[in-house]
Specification:
Chains A, B: It catalyses: (2S,6S)-2,6-diaminopimelate + 2-oxoglutarate = (S)-2,3,4,5-tetrahydrodipicolinate + L-glutamate + H2O + H(+). Chains A, B: Involved in the synthesis of meso-diaminopimelate (m-DAP or DL-DAP), required for both lysine and peptidoglycan biosynthesis. Catalyzes the direct conversion of tetrahydrodipicolinate to LL-diaminopimelate. Chains A, B: Pfam families: Aminotran_1_2. Chains A, B: GO terms for molecular function: L,L-diaminopimelate aminotransferase activity. The structure is a homodimer. Chain A is α/β, with parallel strands linked by helices. The model of chain A has no long low-confidence stretch (mean pLDDT 95). Helix content of chain A is 35%, strand content 14%. In chain A, 57% of the residues are buried. In chain A, helix 2 (50-62) packs antiparallel against helix 8 (296-304). Chain A folds into 2 domains: 10-47 and 309-409, Aspartate Aminotransferase, domain 1; 51-308, Aspartate Aminotransferase, domain 2, CATH 3.40.640. The longest helix of chain A is centred in the last third of the chain and has 27 residues, at 308-334. Chain A has helices spanning 16-30, 50-62, 79-90, 108-114, 133-141, 195-208, 279-290, 296-304, 308-334, 358-369, 395-409; strands spanning 37-38, 102-105, 125-129, 158-161, 179-183, 211-215, 241-246, 259-262, 268-270, 276-278, 339-341, 347-351, 371-372, 374-375, 386-390. Chain A is globular, with a radius of gyration of 22 Å. A 7-stranded mixed beta sheet of chain A has the order 2-8-7-6-5-3-4, sandwiched between helices.
C-alpha cells in the first residue's frame, strides 16, 4: 500500500502565480478583446543579450562535431563558468569565494527548495513576511511546519514582518532560529539591506550557529553604491551563509534557465553527536546524485554574460527595467498612491488605495484597467493591503498601464 | 543550532561514477601518455542530430527578438512538446497517455530522485540488484533505509537479484512492497523485460496498491519487436506505474539535458485516513513549486527529435551504438569471456574472467589495456564478479579497445 507525503495536503490551494494565471485566463476568456498588460509575475520581456545568443549558437554548433561534442558535464557546472563567476561576482567585490564553492544550477527556485534536502528535520525556520512563497511552500512539503491558519501562516515557522512600520527591514528575532531566509534586494517589497543590517544578521547567525539562506537574485538592480551585492561582503558570512544567484533577472534567462548557489567550504552544521559536518560536502553529494548539470549550451550563454560585450548588454537591460520602475513609482506617486521600493529593485511595492484588500485591488485593476499585478497577501499575511508591480515589461506597456491606473485611481477620479 | 540531514552520513563514500573518475584521473596523471579509452560511464559520444541543432539555433534566434522572446515557460513543459511525446511515444504504441500526463524535465536522474518527494516515509522500497545507484542513494538521503552492510546493502530495502541464475529477470517478491524500481532495457545488465514479465509486475502492484517506477531510458535500443517500449503497453499500468524517459541516450542529449516523466491522472496512493490522493496533483504541485521548466531552447531541440529528419537521425545514432554493442559482444565471446545484454541495450554485461572481483578487473583493464569500464559491484552486491562495458563510443575506439582486451584476456594469453 503506497502512501503519499501528507505534508503536501497542508499546502494552501494553488501556488500564487498559478492562481493569478487562473484568474487572468478566466478574465481573458470572458473578455477576449481586453488589452491585458501583465506586470504581475516577475518575468523579463526584453531580448536575450546578443553576446549570450552568439555563445549559445556556437555551443550548438560544437555539438555537431564529435571532436567538440559535449556529453555529461560536471554536475557542479563547468570550471570555466565557475571561475568567471567567482572572479567577477565575488573576488572583484572583495569576497573570498573560490570557484569550487559555486554550484551551477538550472534555477534559484530549484536551489532554494532543494537546499533543505541537506538539513535536519528539527531546525527552527525563519522567513520574512511578506516572502517569496517558494521558501514557505518547500518547508511545508518537507514537513517542517504545522497546518496553515486563516491568514495562510503555517504553524512552526517564525515570521519576521517587513513593512513600512519597520522601514522594510527584517527584524532580528528574540528567539533562537536555525535557518533564516533573507532576500535583498527584496522580492516582493523592493527593499534593500545595508551592510550594517546584514552584519547584524551575520552576527546573530554566528552566535546561534544558524545558517542564512541569502537570495541575491536581484543584486544587479542595486543603484546605491553603499549597498552590498553579496552577503559575503560581510565579514564572517563564509561561516554562516549560503547565497543564491541567478541569471534570470540580470541577463533575461527566465526562459533559458541558469543560476548558481554558493556554499563556502567553511560552512558547517551539526550532527546529533555534536560533530560538525561540512555543508559543502553534503550539497556536492546531493547535486552529484540528484542532478546532472546544466545544459552545456546554456552554460556557454551564461559565461558570455561576463564578456565585455555581455557586461555592457546586461547593464543596458537592467537600466531599461529600472527606468520602467522609476516611471511606475513617479506616476503612482503623482496619483496619490503610496509606493515603496523600485529604486534598487525591479519591484514597486504599492499600498493599495482606498483600503482595498490585495486581491480586491488585483481584481479591480484587472477588470477596470486590464493590468495584472501581484496581490501582496499572496506573499504572506503582512503583505495584505499591498500590491507588487513589476518593472519587467516594455516601455510602451509600462506607460500605457500607468496611464490607465492613474486615470482610474487618481484622487478625485476614484469611484 | 542548525543541524544536518544525517541520512547523508550513511552514504557509502563516493557515488560510483565520481569514484571511477577519481581512479582514472589518478592513472592518467601517473601515465600521461597512456591512450585511455572510456567505455565506463554511459555517456554518448556522437554529434547531436542535425534536426535538433537546427531547431535550437532557431530558438536562440527567437530569443533575440522581443516578439518571439520566451521568458518563464510552463513548469510542466510546453504543450507542443508534450503533445508530440504523447502521440509518438505512447498513443502510436497503443498506450492511453495524454499530453498533460507528461512532465518535461532536465533529466531522468533528477526525476527518479525527486519523485520520492511526493511519497510517504514508511513505504517499503524494492530495488533490483544490480541497480542504477541513484535509486538507492536517493532513498538513503530521504531516510528510507538503515545503514549499509559490508556489501553495500542498506537495511530496510528489499533487493531483488537479477543475475544469470534467474535469466536477468526481476523476481516478484513474496513479501509486500510499496514502491518498486524497474529499469528495462536494464542498466547495467542490458537485460530486457517481456510483456508477460511486466504484466506480472503490474498485477502484483495492483493487488498490493503498490507503485512501479519504470525507467525506460533505454527503450530506443529495443530491437526485438515483441518487447514493450513502455510499461503502459501493459493493461492496468495506468493505475500503478510512473514512467521515466529521456532524450539522453536516443538523441544524445546527455550534455543538452531533457527528459520527461509520465504520471497518469488515474494513479493514486493512500493518505493516513485511508483516502486516495491523486499522484498527478502532488507531482504537478511539486514541479510548480520546486522547478521552473526546461530551457525553451532545449525543449525546441527535443521537439525536433519527433520531426521526420529527427526520427531518421536518431535511428541512425541508435543503430551505430548497437553495432558497437555487437562488436563488443562478439569479440569478447570469441576471447572466451561470457557476456550478456547488448542486443536490446547499449550495455554489455561481462562475467569477469579468472574470477576477478569487479574492481580488480576494473584496475587490471585500466592498467593493462587502458580501457575504462564500470565495476558490476558498483551497481550492487549481486553485481560482484560482473563488469559493464558501454557501447557509447566511436567505432574506432570500440574496435581498438576490443583488440586490447582480447589480446590480454584470450584464454592462453592470460597471465
Amino acid at each position: 500500500m503506497a502512501t503519499v507525503n501528507e505534508n503536501y495536503l497542508k499546502l494552501k490551494a494553488g501556488y500564487l502565480f498559478p492562481e493569478i494565471a487562473r484568474r487572468v485566463n478566466a478574465f481573458a476568456a470572458a473578455n477576449p478583446k481586453a488589452p491585458i498588460i501583465k506586470l504581475g509575475i516577475g518575468d523579463v520581456t526584453e531580448p536575450l543579450p546578443e553576446a549570450c545568443r552568439r555563445a549559445m549558437i556556437q555551443a550548438v554548433e560544437e555539438m555537431g562535431d564529435r571532436n567538440t561534442f559535449k556529453g555529461y558535464g560536471p554536475e557542479q557546472g563547468y570550471g570555466w563558468l565557475r571561475e568567471k563567476i567567482a572572479h567577477h561576482d565575488f573576488q572583484a567585490r572583495g569576497c573570498d569565494i573560490e570557484p569550487d564553492e559555486i554550484f551551477i544550477s538550472d534555477g534559484s527556485k530549484c536551489d532554494t527548495g532543494n537546499i533543505l534536502d541537506i538539513f535536519g528535520k528539527n531546525n527552527k525556520i525563519a522567513v520574512t513576511d511578506p516572502v517569496y512563497p517558494v521558501y514557505v511552500d518547500t518547508n511545508v512539503m518537507a514537513g517542517h511546519t504545522g497546518e496553515a491558519n486563516d491568514q495562510g501562516e503555517y504553524g512552526g515557522l517564525v515570521y519576521l514582518p517587513i513593512s513600512a512600520d519597520n522601514h522594510f527591514t527584517a527584524q532580528i528575532p528574540s528567539e533562537a532560529v536555525d535557518l533564516i531566509y533573507l532576500c535583498f534586494p527584496n522580492n516582493p517589497t523592493g527593499a534593500t539591506a545595508t551592510k550594517e543590517h546584514l552584519a547584524a544578521w551575520v552576527n546573530y547567525a554566528r552566535s546561534h550557529n544558524a545558517i542564512i539562506f541569502f537570495d541575491a537574485a536581484y543584486e544587479a538592480f542595486i543603484t546605491d553604491a553603499s549597498l552590498p551585492h553579496s552577503i559575503y561582503e560581510i565579514e564572517g558570512a563564509r561561516d554562516c551563509a549560503i547565497e543564491f544567484r541567478s541569471f534570470s533577472k540580470n541577463a533575461g534567462f527566465t526562459g533559458t534557465r541558469c543560476a548558481f548557489t554558493v556554499v563556502p567550504k567553511t560552512l558547517t552544521a551539526q550532527a546529533s553527536d555534536g560533530s560538525k559536518v561540512e555543508l559543502w560536502k553534503l550539497w556536492n553529494r546531493r547535486q552529484s546524485t540528484k542532478f546532472n548539470g546544466v545544459s552545456y549550451i546554456v552554460q556557454r550563454g551564461a559565461e558570455a554574460v561576463y564578456s565585455d560585450a555581455g557586461q555592457e548588454q546586461i547593464k543596458a537591460l537592467v537600466s531599461f527595467y529600472l527606468e520602467n520602475a522609476r516611471i511606475i513609482r513617479e506616476q503612482l506617486t503623482a496619483a496619490g498612491i503610496q509606493v515603496y521600493g523600485g529604486v534598487n529593485a525591479p519591484y514597486v511595492w504599492v499600498k493599495t488605495p482606498d483600503n482595498l484588500s490585495s486581491w480586491d485591488f488585483f481584481d479591480k485593476l484587472l477588470q477596470t484597467c486590464h493590468v495584472v499585478g501581484t496581490p501582496g497577501s499572496g506573499f504572506g499575511a503582512a503583505g495584505e493591503g499591498y500590491f507588487r508591480i513589476s518593472a519587467f515589461n516594455s516601455r510602451a506597456n509600462v506607460e500605457e498601464a500607468m496611464k490607465r491606473i492613474t486615470g482610474q485611481f487618481t484622487v478625485g477620479n476614484r469611484e
